[in-house]
Amino acid sequence: MxxxxxxxxxxxxxxxxxxxxxxxxxxxxxxTHMPDRWAALQPAIFEALDGVDLLLHxxxxxxxxxxxxxxxxxxxxAVHGNDETAEAQRVLPYQQVIAFxxxxxxxxxxxxxxxxxxxxxxxYDDWQSKLSANAALAHRAGATIYVSGHLHIPFVxxxxxxxxxxxxxxxxxxxxxxxTIQTVARIYLRDDGRPFVTHIDVTGDPxxxxxxVDWEAGFNATYARYHESIxxxxxxxxxxxxxxxxxxxxxRSWAMMNAxxxxxxxxxxxxxxxxxxxxxxxxxxxxxxxxxATLLDFIEQAAVGSIE
Length: 308
Known about the structure:
- With 308 residues, the protein is α/β, with parallel strands linked by helices.
- It is 31% helix and 21% strand.
- It has helices at 43-48, 65-70, 86-91, 115-121, 127-140, 219-226, 233-242, 251-265, 274-283, 289-303, and strands at 22-29, 54-57, 76-78, 95-100, 103-108, 145-147, 155-159, 162-166, 177-179, 183-190, 195-201, 207-209, 227-229.
- The strands form 3 sheets. The protein has a 6-stranded mixed beta sheet. It has a 5-stranded mixed beta sheet with strand order 4-5-6-8-7, with helices on one face. The protein has a two-stranded antiparallel sheet with strand order 9-13.
- Helix 7 (233-242) crosses helix 10 and helix 9 (274-283) runs antiparallel to helix 10.
């Protein structure tokens, strides 16, 4: 019997799906990165996911209070991501099996637990290797539906008899980037186990989003559609140079870049500039005097291209 309220005026219901056959409506969200990259959940998220039976968060949550806030919509099941707070890593699993009326789903952020293996996987631009790996993980769990995040790209496709669903992302995949299209997903689970997915753009007022992917064009081409730099040209040179220094792995650097990015992500500034970085380095109490002087000198040289 359907658990779906057919009397509900659902603007996101797929037109080719008989409401009488729906056994559950599952909301999916990923990569909120709160509060580092996004200060609060937009009201559009709550509107887009209203009425779902269950909500899945596919990782890179940020603080666990995000889950508390989302639970106003529906009960939440979550997994941790790879760019995560210590508390989320401590209490959330890497993957989670969920079953509805005899149909099994697998929820996973989809990053590789071994960091070296994860970084190596990012060198491959083809979609097939990423999709096949996710399908294999679902097969090991006996799942026919795999819900993941991590890639910051909304899509739904079937690979090796597994439905692969990514809701997209709320926050960007990096501190120097902006997620240009923020999406969540509503998964309408039919009585035969087939998922019908509506992606919803929550960048402004929520509206259905056509999450089309040119699988032959490669991952990077698709990724570029959803991200843009928030760095001025000078600042981009500095950040590129910093990637070849110990600062790239320093938590203080990440905290500083996130702080500089927040006004841009909130729409209050157009970009992050070298002047912004200079001021942050001078004002932070996290650096020793000699560290501050060395970093400021490095910034000056990198900004004019003397260091690459």
